[in-house]
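#onboarding

Welcome to the new folks! Below is a worked example of what a typical request in this channel looks like: someone posts a single protein sequence, and someone else replies with the predicted structure as tokens. Don't worry about understanding the tokens yet, we'll cover that in week two.

Example request:
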Amino acid sequence: MIPTKTQTIFEFNKNLAELVRISLVEFKRKRYVDLRLYYDASESEIPDWKPSKRGLCIGVDLLAELKEAIDKAAEEYEKELFGLGEKGRDNGRTDQKDSGACMNGGGQEPDRDAKTTVSREEQGKGGADD
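Example response:
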């Protein structure tokens, strides 16, 4: 996908060799949010950031749901960090060795067949009780 228009919204360093960039892009007259990992392709001290294939590009119509998911992840992390998690959980403990370890043990890619989404009914959003 080669966007016709790109506006960088925010970026931050993941580590010395990688950058996370969030952009609004337009492609074929549709708007998207692109969260992309960039790598430093430079061999000098001046970085030359190039986009990798690793990232997420979604339509702006899903931005509210993405924000909700990120807020939920932050909320759960804060519960664990401050010991407010469920009874019996080992709060604050992580088996991941760094903040970029979004893979299953040993650096393997996550199981693509595993269920990773929760329906609105499972979230309690579709029922008459809400």
